[in-house]
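User: Just a sanity check before I run the rest of the batch. Below are the structure tokens for the first item. I only need the designed sequence back.
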């Protein structure tokens, strides 16, 4: 029995040795087992290089990459034509607005170094879905790109589903660089409800500009800034008035918190939020009047 076992082991060892000697050098690049996809640049890639990568060192990814996706959700590739339109609007309504008000040095320093698009929303089990996320101050993910045509016909929809999300996530990135004041956390410190935000009523009269503001103080801060710069003064005043209706003081609470947001942006980044809002809204008007071509891939 022992002799039989030894014979089998000897044959196995010889077999392994033979296979190893018969293989080509795995380091040889022409015979590597690692296959790297080679992507041929198209007109969109060249436009992105000229408008994002070269001037800002920002990588704009529209091709699906599993490593960039959140595997906790069912994600899909973004539609190519919608990706082109979204890239133009990210540049025109967001990056260019900050360039205008804060200067290109600010934008180059603080804007995330990657945008990544996916086609579907990231659906959660509480009936909501994720419009976008910011990761480590370096990346913004935008979801639902396949629905762009449906939600880009009005300013309210375009802002709600896409543009406000970018300003919201960029606010998180600024907060990761310079934290917002502790005094902001204390204004409505006992009224945040975390994941119950979607079912909690009476947000305005309790001092919250949106439902999602009620999640946490960091989301409240980002919601205030992003809602402020994507809506005009008339809309904002109407929300404050509604929050103060029937002897409530929710509007005053929102105004107090918004004052702290404005101070934060002015003191730390020399950005006047009223100037930023004017820049964004003027560009928004130009877009909806048909004065902005969001499909042109000419490299200038």
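Assistant: Here's the designed sequence for the first item:
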């Amino acid at each position: 029995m022992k002799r039989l076992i030894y014979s089998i082991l000897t044959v196995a060892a010889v077999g392994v040795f033979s296979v190893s000697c018969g293989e080509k050098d795995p380091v040889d690049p022409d015979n590597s087992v690692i296959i790297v996809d080679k992507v041929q640049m198209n007109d969109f890639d060249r436009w992105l290089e000229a408008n994002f990568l070269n001037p800002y060192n920002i990588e704009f990814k529209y091709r699906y990459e599993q490593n960039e996706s959140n595997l906790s959700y069912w994600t899909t590739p973004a539609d190519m034509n919608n990706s082109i339109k979204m890239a133009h609007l990210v540049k025109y309504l967001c990056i260019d607005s900050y360039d205008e008000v804060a200067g290109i040095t600010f934008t180059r320093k603080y804007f995330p170094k990657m945008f990544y698009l996916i086609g579907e929303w990231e659906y959660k089990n509480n009936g909501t879905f994720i419009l976008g996320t910011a990761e480590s101050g370096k990346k913004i993910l935008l979801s639902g790109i396949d629905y762009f045509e449906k939600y880009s016909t009005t300013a309210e929809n375009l802002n709600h589903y896409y543009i406000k999300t970018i300003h919201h996530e960029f606010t998180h990135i600024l907060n990761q660089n310079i934290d917002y004041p502790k005094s902001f956390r204390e204004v409505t410190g006992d009224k945040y409800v975390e994941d119950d935000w979607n079912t909690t009523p009476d947000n305005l009269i309790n001092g919250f500009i949106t439902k999602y503001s009620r999640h946490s103080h960091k989301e409240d801060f980002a919601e205030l800034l992003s809602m402020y710069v994507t809506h005009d003064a008339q809309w904002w005043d109407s929300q404050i008035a509604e929050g103060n209706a029937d002897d409530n003081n929710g509007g005053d609470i929102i105004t107090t918190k918004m004052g702290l947001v404005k101070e934060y942006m002015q003191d730390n980044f020399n950005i006047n939020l009223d100037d930023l809002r004017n820049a964004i809204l003027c560009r928004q008007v130009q877009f909806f009047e048909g004065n902005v071509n969001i499909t042109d891939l000419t490299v200038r």
